[in-house]
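#struct-help
A.M.: can someone run this one for me? Single chain, 184 residues.
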Amino acid sequence: MEIDWLATLAEQGDIAKSKATEVATLVVKPELPLEIASRLYRDVEKGAQTFDRILSDMEDADGSDELLEAADALAELWSQLSVASANKLRELQGLSPIMIREASHYARGSDSTRAGHQSEERKVTGWQKLTEHDAIEAAVAEHGKDRAASVAYCALKAYDGRDSAEYRFWFGLFLKPAKRKRVA
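D.P.: on it. Structure tokens below:
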């Protein structure tokens, strides 16, 4: 029986977005109990490992370049969630945060394999001057086609262990209701 990779990615995207909302909500709580931060980190790691297995299966099945690129974007989101949840745990333990200066991004070759590793900082600058619509478009331009995931990436990139104005901007945009749905 052939796996419907598009449906699998859609389901996994929903799971990742839900976890992104949870992570973004909890990491800014200054008095978050250590047990909750530990559970959050374990849950994120479990989700990331599950998705890594799915991505590996998808690559083994020679999924299309477009689906594999979407899968890479989800893998990057899980990576960002892992760092954010680990940093909250480290903060509560009195340790310094993990600083990742470069976002990992895989370029795909024509044979649908990881052709090479590129590193680049992918953070939207000048966010203070953007309208909500322009901010969403800038996030999509930096992080991919999925509006909600792109805005969530921006919120996670802005989180550096403290509740900053930039983090609140992106997280607020991620949660902003419009016609009973998120703007992003």
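A.M.: thanks! The longest helix spans residues 65-92.
D.P.: also worth noting: Residues 102-121, 178-184 have pLDDT under 50 and may be disordered.
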